[in-house]
Each structure stands twice: as C-alpha cells, then as structure tokens.
Prior knowledge:
By secondary structure, the chain is of the alpha/beta class. The protein has one domain: Alpha-Beta Barrel (TIM Barrel). It is built from 13 helices and 21 strands. The chain has helices spanning about 75-85, 100-110, 130-145, 165-175, 185-200, 205-210, 215-230, 245-255, 265-270, 295-305, 345-355, 360-375, 460-470; strands at about 5, 10, 15-20, 20-25, 25-30, 40-45, 50, 55-60, 65, 70, 85-95, 120-125, 150, 180-185, 235, 260-265, 310, 395-405, 420-430, 435-440, 440-445. The protein has an eight-stranded parallel sheet. A seven-stranded mixed sheet has the order 3-2-7-18-19-20-21. Helix 8 (about 245-255) links the parallel strand 15 (about 235) and strand 16 (about 260-265). The chain starts with a strand and ends with a helix. The structure holds N-(aminocarbonyl)-beta-alanine (URP) and zinc ion (2 copies). One zinc ion (ZN) binds near residues 58, 60, 315 and 317. One zinc ion binds next to loops.
Amino acid sequence: xxxxxxxxxxxxxxxxxxxxxxxxxxxxxxxxxxxxxxxxxxxxxxxxxxxxxxxxxxxxxxxxxxxxxxxxxxxxxxxxxxxxxxxxxxxxxxxxxxxxxxxxxxxxxxxxxxxxxxxxxxxxxxxxxxxxxxxxxxxxxxxxxxxxxxxxxxxxxxxxxxxxxxxxxxxxxxxxxxxxxxxxxxxxxxxxxxxxxxxxxxxxxxxxxxxxxxxxxxxxxxxxxxxxxxxxxxxxxxxxxxxxxxxxxxxxxxxxxxxxxxxxxxxxxxxxxxxxxxxxxxxxxxxxxxxxxxxxxxxxxxxxxxxxxxxxxxxxxxxxxxxxxxxxxxxxxxxxxxxxxxxxxxxxxxxxxxxxxxxxxxxxxxxxxxxxxxxxxxxxxxxxxxxxxxxxxxxxxxxxxxxxxxxxxxxxxxxxxxxxxxxxxxxxxxxxxxxxxxxxxxxxxxxxxxxxxxxxxxxxxxxxxxxxxxx
Length: 471
Ligand code: URP
Ligand code: ZN
Ligand code: ZN
C-alpha cells in the first residue's frame, strides 16, 4: 500500500519547505503540495520535520576488541540506531593478515544478514598491502561494493599498520577509486607512553587520556594528510577529537589535498575530566582518541559549521560497564576502548547543534546524512529527499524535551555516556525503504529486513563531492 506523509516540513541539506511525500513501495514517487492520495495510507507529520534518514559512517557492531566483543550487535545496534533516526550504518569489517579478504567479509555478512533492521554496508580494514591483497581489492570493490578502506595508525600489535601499508593503500585507492580512512594516532609513541605510565604504577582510567595526548593525534593526522598529498589520493580521518588534528586537516585542505574529517558526539559534548570520575566510572569514557580538554569542543563545533570537518560518526563500540569495561580495573590499558553512541548521534547534533545555534538545520542534515552518502557512494539513493530515492525518512518532533538515560535507551549496554543530559527533539517515526521501523516511538521493524548496500566508487562521485562539499 502507498503511504502519503502530509503536513511535514521537509528538510534537506539544501532546502527547507512544506510538501507532502507520496511513497510507493521502497521509493518516494511524488513530492509537492496537496498530492492526490491515490488510496494511500495517510501519515500526518504536523509540527514535525521530515529528514532523510541518518547515515552513520562509523560503527563497530559485535566487534572482537580489547579481549571481549562489543555488546551491541547488528540487531540491537540497528534497532537503537533506528530509534535515534538513523536508517543506514557503515560498519568496519576487520581483516586478518594472511587470510583472504573474502573470509573476513563473509564473517561480517554472517553477523549482519539476519539481524539488521535497517540498511547497512561495510568498510574494509587493510592490515597489510602485499601482492595477494592487491589482487583481491578490485573484486572486493566490484562484487562487494566495498569502496572504503580503513588503516589503523594505532593499537600497536593489534590493528596497527605501518606507514608503508598506509602509503600503498593511498596509492592503490587512487588507482581503483576508493577512499582511505585512518584512525590517526601515533601508535608507537602511545605504546611507549602507556608502558612508562604502567611502570610508574599509574593504572587509573585518566592515564588513558594522558598517554594519548593531542600531539599524537595531530602528528598522525598530519602524517596521513601529507602522504595523501604525496600519493595524490583521498583520505577520510575518522573520529577527530582535537584542535591539533583539525589544524592538520585544514592545512592539508588549504594545499588542495583531498582530506575529509569526521568527529563524534562524545568529542563535541564530553571532556577529559569524565575520565577522573570516582569508583572506576571514568572507564565508561574511555575512547581512542581520548576525550580532550573542554576548549577543543568549540574548535570541533566550529569545524563542523565551517566545513573543515564534514561528518559526524557515532564510533558505536559499546561495552558494559560491569563485565567488560572492568577488564581494566587494575590497568587502564586493558579497558576496552569505545562506547554506546549509535542511538544519540542525531539527537545530540540536533539539540546541541541546531537548537543552540551552532549549525543550521540544513547543515545538520548534511552532516548526519547527505555528506556521508556522497563521500561513501550512496548518494542520491540515500541521504536526500526527492522523487525516485529510497524512502528512508525520519519524522522528527523538534519540540519534545527528554532526558537521555540507560533506563530508556535501546542499546544493549548498562550505561549511557550522556546519562541525565536533557535534549530537545525526538524521532517519532522512522521509515526504511518505505516501511516503518519506528512508529510513534515504538519499534515495528523486522530483524533481517535491512539490506546490504553495495556502494559506488569514490571517484564516481568525485565531481559531485568536490562541487558540493568544498567550502
Ligand atoms: O575507542 C574507540 N574509538 N573504539 C572503537 C575502535 C576505534 O578505534 O574506532
Ligand atoms: Zn579508531
Ligand atoms: Zn571506530
């Protein structure tokens, strides 16, 4: 049956206007005032905005990490995402050195296929770039539609790749039309600082931040950006947390290098002092890169506003406080890194960004959806509202006032990093390809209904991206 959304205010990255939306099956088939219902079910969005569904470029669902596995999987994680107004996630597929890439991709398909309630895609981790890996990449891009590659510059002896691997990945991505993503922290220096701190008996969560200072993020970001320029390639820096990294990205962009950046809600809203909470509660706030001194937050908001950074990822990688984070009770370096963020990403950006005048309503849509779709080869099928595209839609009440809490969130973990924070605005109903996933704040979706998305190559969008993202 067709659906007709009436009385809503449509918001895209470019415009805000009143219009009805007619949906047939998975797509929007008409947009305009007073549309003929054609027998459609009518949905009244009076008083609400209608946004394109959020696209989260950065999740780690059911990921083995830090001696455990992140708690939210493709079921709980995507349900929570949908509650928050996100209709697509791009998750990081981890690879193992010496193993065929397809093995790793198959593992990720297996854990997502029957669970995801919204659409999803994968980035692929590159841990080595030898002839064998090189030979597999064209097929991975063409057959799997995986067109973005992640290189970790940190997590020594776990995920960390060397500079040769990073450089070869950049060169290869340029040739094949992929986008290279980096976790930019200097893993070797961090390793030294962590060992030194532990030798000195410094074991509390705060030392996580003190052994990963902004300089190590700035240095790695600058190095990756310089190598991108040398390779004439394209780079996306994930989870930018501090001014040092923003400055390196701005310098690179000013030189004409194609360097994009993402930040996350935790870096916009939380600061280093959270790691000093008593009773080991600081462990709840252990991310890499770590939370920073508060002044960095203004730099990050400004970077989103001015286009120095382009997107907001959740970096969803959730661990229970009891039973997972406490693996590091006597040693901060054993606290699993990451937190629950998939559900609150859109709300935080709206409430703290739009409502507080830090960004405009259209920038909000651009940052949480449209730019992600453009950079990662999903546009225009995803990331905008117009005739012919997927009906991934959020009916959002901008006036609802509520308090974020683990008692009411839908993520599978026992705490929320924003516990007690008051926010304005809430996703009331969410549609994924024309079907309700959330209806009147209730989950009505179906496990396994999310589709795997093959994405276009970065260079197929290059023109569009450059025209619409460069500020
Ligand atoms: O602390 C974090 N960010 N955990 C997830 C893994 C990563 O580095 O993105
Ligand atoms: Zn990372
Ligand atoms: Zn991450």
